[in-house]
From TrEMBL:
<dbReference type="InterPro" id="IPR000600">
    <property type="entry name" value="ROK"/>
</dbReference>
<dbReference type="Pfam" id="PF00480">
    <property type="entry name" value="ROK"/>
</dbReference>
<protein>
    <submittedName>
        <fullName>ROK family protein</fullName>
    </submittedName>
</protein>
<comment type="similarity">
    <text>Belongs to the ROK (NagC/XylR) family.</text>
</comment>
<dbReference type="InterPro" id="IPR043129">
    <property type="entry name" value="ATPase_NBD"/>
</dbReference>
Length: 247
């Protein structure tokens, strides 16, 4: 069974049909740039462009970079603040001609995919997935069950919002070396999260997971096991498809 998944990010919006049996993309994904400013109307138009690229006419799952309860957006750190209070499911469903749409937090979607098909498969105890990109998304699992909308990227770290110090965007904007970013930024952030939650496993997702060999070996002093996401940057699309399939 295939269902469509769309992953809305701060810099790009990508999607593809998802094979729910294998947890893989059924076709090569299509990506467009996130409009700036990333208003509801602008983003909805881009989501429609991605879905229509495949001529899709069935259920659609969509991730959002913020807290989502029901299908209503509660926070919007890396998209336009006008999203707050919007019923994203209704907005996107209308833009897609009445297709059934399921909306969930982007990191939660990636985490569910990784726990089902990827690096967290079969793992018990406390597992935390962190998506490193424009910001830092988080998904917290206890014995395989999701605690939704944790938003651990907004923990305070040395007087700053953690994602402004340890995200991939922070590395790029400040032109930090892999070593500086891994040892002075990401390690300190992981140590802070570990102090609060004592996880057995950290899964590092987002686009930077493709380059895990450049930074994960540099991180020392963390008790938890740290591994890259197996689905890499497709995890959000897969998780979105899974949510649509479950709905």
């Amino acid at each position: 069974m295939n269902v469509f998944g769309v992953d809305i990010g701060g810099s790009g919006i990508k999607g593809a049909p998802v094979d729910l049996e294998r947890g893989t993309l059924a076709e090569e994904r299509h990506k467009v740039l996130t409009p700036q400013p990333a208003t509801p109307d602008g983003v909805a138009g881009c989501v429609a462009e991605v879905v229509e690229h495949f001529g899709w006419t069935g259920p659609v799952g969509v991730t959002f970079p913020g807290v989502v309860t029901g299908s209503t957006v509660r926070t919007a750190a890396n998209v336009d603040k006008s999203w707050i209070g919007v019923d994203a499911g209704t907005l996107l469903g209308d833009r897609l001609g009445g297709l059934p749409v399921t909306v969930l937090n982007d990191a939660d979607a990636a985490g569910v995919a990784e726990m089902t098909f990827g690096a967290g498969r079969g793992r018990k105890g406390t597992v935390i997935l962190l998506t490193l990109g424009t910001g830092i998304g988080s998904a917290l699992f206890v014995d395989g069950r999701l605690v939704p909308n944790t938003e651990l990227g907004h923990l305070e770290l040395k007087g700053h919002d953690a994602e402004t110090r340890a995200s991939t965007r922070a590395k790029e904007d400040e032109d930090l070396s892999w070593e500086h970013w891994a040892t002075r930024r990401l390690r300190k952030y992981l140590a802070h999260v570990e102090m609060l939650f004592s996880p057995e496993l950290f899964i590092i997702g987002g686009g930077v997971s493709r380059k895990a060999d450049k930074f994960l070996p540099l991180i020392e002093g963390i008790r938890a096991e740290i591994v890259p996401a197996e689905l890499q940057n497709n995890a959000g699309i897969v998780g979105a498809g899974m949510a649509a399939g479950a709905a």
